[in-house]
From TrEMBL:
Pfam families assigned to the protein according to its UniProt record, in alphabetical order: ADH_N, ADH_zinc_N
Cited InterPro entries: ADH-like_C, ADH-like_N, ADH_Zn_CS, ER, GroES-like_sf, NAD(P)-bd_dom_sf, Zn_alcohol_dh
Residues in Enoyl reductase (ER) domain copies: 8-339
Cofactors: Zn(2+)
Protein's UniProt name: Zinc-binding dehydrogenase
Assigned keywords, A-Z: Metal-binding, Oxidoreductase, Zinc
SUPFAM superfamilies in the record: GroES-like, NAD(P)-binding Rossmann-fold domains
UniProt cross-references to SMART domains, sorted A to Z: PKS_ER (SM00829)
Organism of provenance: Gordonia hydrophobica
Membrane-spanning parts: none
Family membership: Belongs to the zinc-containing alcohol dehydrogenase family.
Length: 342
């Protein structure tokens, strides 16, 4: 089968791999859609590897159809023909975190993560534990299921960490796929959304997804603009998705007294003085993707509310277009890409 690997220094190759076979408790999924995630770029832009290195297939936003089932997998868990999303972490399966749907927080074993220590989804087939599959609602496309499996689901998880948002004002910093998903969810849940980004195209999409106010931080001071839009007080809720240190600091600075802030962008360094900050009575939290349970709830909500998750995708590719696809994605000036089966 074909699979996409990163060779470092922005090198991409499509290589041949053996079609995997399922072990006990495992299934083989024919990948119908595999989303491109911004975190891919950390590896894509990394140091070059030796030509002889054994590289892992990339991609951790998989969605597809079960085509083979291993020993010990009951039909109630997974069966051939099921349309499934995939929760792209798995751990020991028995510790308290695994049992509550948080295998990425496994306490007794190093979590298995596609692209890091397991083959990923930018391929024709993928082998995974059956328990990490979950039903894709019939009305949702494979591409929508792939988005929910990571970026869109990450936005859902972050809003859960912020708590009740109905009737409140939320500033969403960064309108990439995660930020746009957060804007879409927050608007549908009854919040007033202030969307912040440096790209006008993304802000236009945010407006289409329900943002009440858009702020182009390449043209105006974001903190001043948000305060102006909130009568000087600042928003009750803030979500930071960019992972850029300067932007994360703005997110911290702009929150209203008693405000709640959630950081999900990767890579930012944030500093604050406790004397100044404690007097603002802030609640600061982080969020890492979502649980298996919330992934299913997220998909059910998208299905019930008929949210336009499919509109996140601006570009669709085949595996053979991997080089072109990642050259485009590396520019980070447009929407979201997905590899789809022909």
């Amino acid at each position: 089968m074909k699979g996409i690997v990163f060779t470092g220094d922005k090198g991409v190759e499509v290589r041949d791999f053996e079609v995997p076979s399922p072990g006990p408790g495992e299934v083989i999924v024919k990948i119908r859609a595999s989303g491109m995630c911004g975190s891919d770029l950390h590896v894509y832009r990394g140091a070059a590897v030796k030509p002889s290195a054994e590289l892992l297939v990339q991609g951790h936003e998989p969605c597809g159809e079960i085509v083979q089932v291993g020993a010990g997998v009951s039909a109630a868990t997974a069966k051939v023909g099921d349309r499934v999303m995939i929760h792209h972490y798995w751990g020991c399966g028995t510790c308290i975190d695994c049992r509550t749907g948080w295998p990425q927080m496994c306490r007794t074993a190093e979590p298995r993560v596609p692209t890091l220590n397991e083959h990923g989804a930018h391929a024709e087939y993928m082998r995974i534990p059956a328990i990490q599959t979950m039903p894709l609602p019939d009305s949702l496309s494979y591409a929508a299921g792939a988005a929910i499996g990571c970026g869109t689901g990450t936005a859902w998880g972050a809003l859960l960490r912020l708590g009740d948002i109905s009737g409140k004002t939320i500033a969403v910093f960064g309108q990439g796929p995660v930020g746009l998903s957060a804007t879409m969810f927050a608007a549908s849940l009854g919040a007033r959304v202030i969307a912040v980004d440096i790209a006008q195209g993304r802000l236009d999409q945010a407006r289409a997804f329900g943002a009440d106010v858009v702020v182009n931080s390449a043209e105006v001071d974001a903190v001043e603009a948000i305060r102006a839009a909130t009568a000087g007080r600042g928003p009750e809720l803030v979500l930071e998705t960019s992972g850029v240190t300067r932007v994360a600091q703005q997110a911290l600075d702009v929150a209203a007294p008693w405000g709640r802030i959630c950081f999900i962008g990767i890579g930012a360094d944030i500093a604050f003085n406790t004397k100044d900050t404690l007097r603002r009575q802030l609640t600061i939290v982080t969020s890492w993707t979502m649980s298996t349970v919330e992934q299913m709830r997220c998909a059910e909500y998208v299905d019930r509310m008929k949210l336009p998750v499919e509109d996140l995708f601006s570009h669709r590719w085949t595996l053979d277009q991997a080089v072109e696809a990642y050259e485009w994605f590396d520019r980070q000036d447009a929407g979201k890409g997905v590899f789809e089966a022909v």
